[in-house]
Amino acid sequence: MLLRPTSVADLDVFLSWIPDEEAMVLWTGPTFSWPLNRFQLERYLTNANRQYWTGIDETTGAIVGHGTLLLDDEARACRLGSVIVDPGRRGEGLGRKLMELLKATAYGTTTVTELTLGVIAHNTAARSLYESLGFQGSEVVRCTPMGDQMWEVISMRQSREHQN
To answer: pLDDT tens digits for 92-139?
Structure first.
């Protein structure tokens, strides 16, 4: 996998990966409203403080993932977010590779000393992946509405000196 900046042309692929409200909330929490549409995604790409990355399969050229980096230069921190891989390719290690590339980009091109992310508490696959990559934390920092439920969001972090 390689990373390239996300373009508007990628948005239809991302939309195809989000079949329902639950998948949308697992992906980005309360960022969007259901039903998700292209207009919301186009607006999402306009935050000048955020880097938007698309994961590309080096063999086929297919889009296989997406993630963002939100830099806070004053705090020397970076928030990883909106991490998703092609649902039809889950179980192939793409999430791990995508996260490794995002981490390398954050640590390699900035003065960042800490990475943070948020994950829905019951998203055990994502939590296990992040823990295996050296992220720690289990503090519930907020709740995100999903239908008539409130889903807990856990904050995880990793310092540069403790990266895997």
So the answer is: 999 999 999 999 999 986 689 999 999 999 999 999 999 999 999 978
pTM: 0.94
Out of 3.40.640.10, 3.40.190.10, 3.40.630.30, 3.40.50.720, the CATH code matching 2-117 is 3.40.630.30
Backbone angles phi, psi at 94, to 5 degrees: -70, -35
Pairing of strands 77-85, 114-120: parallel
CA atoms within 13 A on the CB side of 86: 17
